[in-house]
Model the fold of this input.
Amino acid sequence: MNEQSNIAVNAESEPVAFNAALAEPTNVLIVGVGGQGVIMVSKVLASLAQAHGYEVKQSEVHGMAKRGGTVFSHVRFGPRVWSPTIAKGEADVLIALEWAEGLRWLPHLKRDTGVFICDTKRIVPPFACLSRRPGAPMRYSTETAEQVAAYVSEAYAIDATKMAEELGNERAANVVLLGALSTVLEFALPEWEKTVTAFVPKKTIAVNSAAFELGRNWIADAKSESPSADAAPAAAPAHTPYQPRLEITDAWCKSCEICVKLCPERCLKLNADRVVELVAPEKCTGCRLCEWLCPDFAIRVHLDTEAPAMEAAQ
Amino acid sequence: MHTPWQAATALKTESKELRPLTGNEAIARAAWEAGVRVAAAYPGTPSTEVLENLATYPVEDLHAQWSTNEKVALDVAMGASFAGSRALCAMKHVGLNVAADAFMTATYIGVNGGLVLIVCDDPGIHSSQNEQDSRIYGQLANIPVLEPSDAQEAYDFTKLAFEISEQFDTPVIVRSTTRLSHTRSTVSVGERVEVPARVFLERPSKNVMIPAHARGRHLFVLERETKLKDFLATADITRIERGDTKFGVITAGTCYPYLREVLPNATVLKLGASWPLPDTLLREFCASVEQVFVVEELEPIIEKEVASLGIKVEGKRLFPRAGEFSPEVVRAGFVQAGLLPAPPSYNAWVPEPVVRPPVLCAGCPHTSSFMAVRASGARVAGDIGCYTLAVLDPLRGIDTCVAMGSSIGNAIGMAKAGETKPVVATIGDSTFLHAGLPALIDAVYNQANIAVVLLDNHITAMTGGQEHPGTGKTLRGEPAPQVDYEALIKACGVKWVKKVDSYDLAATHQALREAINYRGVAVLISNRPCVLDPIKIKGPPLEIITSQCTACQSCMNLGCPALTWSDEWFEGRHRVKIDPALCIGCTLCAQVCTIDCIKIASPAVTQ
Ligand code: SF4
Ligand code: SF4
Ligand code: SF4
Ligand code: SF4
Done:
């Protein structure tokens, strides 16, 4: 079931079983992006730990989170828990519902014993696509699963979203991850199942049970399989670098301002004669939007092959 | 609303059962048990859930309402207290500024029925416009500020707050912070006790604050403070935990667990109330240890008080005055003081984090309004709400943002100061009712030449979708009369009012142009519901015919999170794709696409 590009590292080692008798609390950090179900994962875990008679503290940050921001929830349980938050370098398990978010919180994981379980799902924020210069890279994590694996003691990059999608409910990805989490914490399987069932909507119990199973089995399989490579983001194709040059026919410009208002780089203005002018040539990316939009064909965009002394505008 | 937590544990009916509750849920539970009869608030993170949870208790037990703003909420709660019932009002720190006028007189009047204010600060500024320390208001008003450190204490202290309020004739603040409000831990709960309402107190000298009465009440307030100090010195909520005698730490609230995490054996004076501070107890404690530290978030309130007693104390030199505390921060302070060894440093590999600020949702109706606002070339006074996010690229559409309801007032000032660009104020529906309306009346009265864009998304969206007088529903979800914005705005004297569909980009542009050209106050109502509340809107997603896309990036101007770059390129720039899971089908991107290559992916099938 996991012929996708999933990897698991340190496959030969046994799962870390956290010992209840230890006085130190167990720290689980759950992270993701608004709307992914981070809070649900942490509630299931907290409830499970509480039913076990542990003291539990669960601290979350929401607020603007549902508008695509980063969301995280700290869950700490043990015989005695003081702080509701986990200090850097002290998380036993980091469970991430989104790839770049998993990487963001890596420094919180225990260096020597920490377990990293991360969905390979990529949610690219609009901010990653801001630079519109030709050849501009997307500002999204480029680190590979291998790099992460070298950093932590145990790492699982699991395509939970795809697995959930195949079950017919993308929203069950967080339960796939709960299934994976169940292999590294000491609670018994029936308790996990009971708790998960109590937290998901009645109508989705079947699909969520299947999702939980998938996640759980995936880890088991991953341990007996050789790791496969992570799909690397596509690199930019080679293109001839160019300098955009705008040819503006003054007489044809009717001052409609459409290009001024819609230029993505805001580099056009109407001059004193109410004729369009390129005022910030260094910002122009040669996107041609002005050329496409102008009802009077007053602008033509030339993409001149890059030459050192090329004037960007006339 | 009932959380799954409650559903999971509701089977047990014994009193003193254990429940996992957030700080806010614990406060609501305690207020209900304490027999609160009236509760009011305006939603604001992190305080919102206090009222949302109170509204889950039976309507026969208490009246819970959203008010138009925090001052109104406090006035409502005071009214209930005047009438002899226990009352609560909740707000976030900046809300207390709005309520401050009534608040500063409430302290003189005191209470009849117990009056408790829940004030939630936001150290670390998770979702606020500033980081103020509301304990200073407690000091200013000479009223007790109880500071719980976990959900159990939030519950216990809230109950106690009602007792203190009635016993000492004072409003009481229970101060929470984001960390406490949104942290869940086990709480042992009880049952509601009906508190018989007292009768209205016919005492004008207490209830009517004319100068002659107020002079007398001010003396009362000062006397009350002395009595409170004595009470708090011996109250159960204040305790000394003896450990190591080399040094002692004074702390309160959410700093206490951080301190215990890093110094489990230290001698600690844990204050249950951070105002007023009992001098005798402070003196005794400080004398019993060689060195004194104060660990408190934000302002040095306790530290200054201890220092003013002539005691040598360490605090803000070691622990920052800005930002939220954590075990790391507390540890770092004690490391600096030489009392803890430096934590082992390790070579942390830190991948460069992806920038992921909150953004407007896919299909947010505010997007088009800000496309139009930005294209208008106006000077834009913004306000508090989801739409404040339009300040970021690529919308980059607002120039100022101060406080709830400030935009219209700011716009009047800019226009009167001779701003050469046209002046536009943007404001959401809930914010407009909160504090924008008086400013609109001011604009009309003073004949300001401004255009106001009322971003009506039919809900209080930023805090997660709360009802308000414009939605036609109460806090409990019952039908309510609905504000008619057009009639209301006309009644304020605005001559130019127009409603436009936010998803019609051309019409929005056109209408805004008219509004700006109008001389005087023009109000444009951008009308479309929020895509998340009260129901999640999900229309057929759109699709880009990638092979045709010229990578002009016009659609990327919208900043819609459903739009990202594909792996294909055109003339060295990224072609664009739409994530069908996120797209809600608003069609805005199709409206701005220069070559018309964005289409509905699967035409809606009607069954
Ligand atoms: S090509 Fe035209 S629209 Fe595009 S960035 Fe340059 S000036 Fe602006
Ligand atoms: S919650 Fe509603 S108003 Fe806020 S950004 Fe999302 S769609 Fe827009
Ligand atoms: S239609 Fe376009 S702008 Fe609207 S939500 Fe979909 S991708 Fe975003
Ligand atoms: S507006 Fe149309 S052509 Fe331009 S980038 Fe977007 S999809 Fe491509």
